[in-house]
Amino acid sequence: MRNLPAGFNDRIESVEVAPGVAVEVFEDAGCAGNSLEFFDDLADLGSFTKKVSAVRVTYSNAG
């Protein structure tokens, strides 16, 4: 789990995901609040655009 540095908080619009990795983004620091999990690059975070405050990266068998 990782809170985003102040310069990135609420500024993320897209995410690149390495093969074998799952990324979960959270609206609130401390991996709290609403979340979105994905396994591939996402060019548009939709309702999460410029709302991400924390990220959790894990290894995955998906993708």
Description:
This protein is mostly beta strands and 63 residues long. Helix content is 0%, strand content 37%. Strand 2 and strand 3 (32-38) form a beta hairpin. The two termini are 21 Å apart.
Brief synopsis:
This protein has 63 residues and is an all-beta fold. The protein has strands at 2-3, 21-28, 32-38, 54-59. Strand 2 (21-28) and strand 3 form a beta hairpin.
- How many helical elements? 0
- Give the number of DSSP strands: 4
* Shape label: globular
Spatial strand arrangement across the major sheet: 1-4-2-3
Mean pLDDT: 91
How would you spell out the order of helices and strands? EEEE
Helix content: under 10%
Proportion of beta-strand residues: 35-45%
C-alpha-based Rg, rounded = 11 Å
Give the biggest beta sheet: 4 strands, antiparallel
Roughly how many Å apart are the termini? 21 Å
Ranges where pLDDT stays below 50 over 5 or more residues in a row are none
Strand and helix layout:
Layout: E1 2-3, E2 21-28, E3 32-38, E4 54-59
Antiparallel strand pairs: 1-4, 2-3, 2-4
Provide the descriptors you would attach to this structure in a database record.
single chain; 63 residues; mainly beta; 4 strands; globular
